[in-house]
């Protein structure tokens, strides 16, 4: 754990010291801290990292710690983005008389985001996101029995100068079943100022045999500059399948790789 914390702090220090070198004049758009993926792609020739920590309080004293979660993105062109996602889990089970902690990496996921439509009138800005999990690149403790994949449409409407409405629909194959779950998100976002952004959100999934997972959350992000962002969010489960509550914090930054 101490080694992981030192590594995380090193990443934070590197981000803080190097993000200022990027000279893009547009504001960075991120997929965190909410669950709603943005339809905006990383700019061509830029590398973007979105790193966080998530604690999910489950039933009783049991919890799942995702530390770190990392979404790495690279802008291939105006319409294509390469994506890689990795997560390290620590599952705490309050067993009597001896509690157990199980740690390891979930399957690494690779994918792409493809820009489909620009916003025009009532038509939302729309992108397609597809991921596939590489089960061979995971710890034995978290290796799924079934394939992992996700397909999602990310959409956004600009309602005013300060309010945007983001929403996603799609399918997720979580590795627990061969059948996909239908997933949805709905998140109004508010540009409180040039530096501060806030959101509220409902999201969840609907699977077979009434395996429904519905949640609500909210959070804020602070834009240190156009290429560096800090965030925090919290939420609560609304259904039997959901975590009781969850708390997340993270950092996102982007750097120019080539002109």
The averaged pLDDT comes out at 91
Helix/strand-derived category reads mainly beta
Strands in their spatial order, largest beta sheet: 1-2-3-5-6-7-8-9-10-11-12-13
CATH fold title: Porin
* Total DSSP helices: 1
Corresponding CATH architecture: Beta Barrel
Largest sheet at a glance?
12 strands, antiparallel, barrel
| CATH homology group | monomeric porin ompg
The CATH class label is: Mainly Beta
What gross morphology would you assign?
A: globular
Helix content, binned percent: under 10%
Beginning-to-end CA distance, first to last residue? 38 Å
Number of spatially distinct domains = 1
- Proportion of residues in extended strands: over 45%
- Please state the oligomeric state of the protein chains shown: single chain
Radius of gyration over all CA atoms, rounded: 18 Å
Low-confidence stretches: none
Q: Kindly state the number of beta strands.
A: 13
Element-by-element helix/strand order: HEEEEEEEEEEEEE
């Amino acid at each position: 754990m101490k080694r992981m914390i030192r590594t995380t702090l090193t990443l934070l220090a590197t981000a803080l010291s190097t993000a200022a070198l990027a000279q893009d004049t547009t504001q960075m758009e991120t997929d965190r801290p909410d669950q709603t993926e943005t339809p905006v792609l990383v700019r061509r020739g830029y590398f973007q990292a979105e790193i966080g920590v998530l604690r999910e309080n489950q039933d009783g004293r049991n919890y799942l710690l995702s530390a770190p979660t990392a979404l790495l993105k690279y802008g291939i062109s105006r319409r294509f983005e390469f994506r890689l996602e990795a997560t390290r889990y620590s599952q705490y089970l309050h067993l009597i008389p001896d509690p157990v902690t199980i740690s390891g990496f979930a399957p690494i996921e690779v994918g792409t985001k493809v820009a489909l439509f620009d916003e025009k009138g009532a038509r939302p800005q729309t992108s397609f996101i597809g991921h596939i999990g590489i089960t061979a690149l995971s710890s034995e403790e978290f290796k799924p029995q079934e394939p992992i994949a996700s397909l999602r449409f990310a959409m956004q409407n600009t309602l005013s100068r300060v309010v945007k409405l983001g929403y996603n629909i799609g399918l997720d194959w979580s590795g627990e079943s061969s059948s996909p779950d239908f997933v949805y998100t709905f998140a109004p976002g508010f540009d409180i100022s040039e530096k501060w952004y806030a959101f509220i959100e409902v999201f969840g999934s609907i699977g077979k045999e009434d395996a429904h997972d519905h949640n609500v959350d909210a959070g804020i992000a602070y834009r240190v500059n156009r290429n560096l962002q800090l965030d925090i969010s919290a939420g609560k489960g609304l259904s039997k399948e959901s975590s009781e509550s969850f708390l997340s914090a993270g950092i996102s930054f982007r750097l120019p790789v080539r002109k």
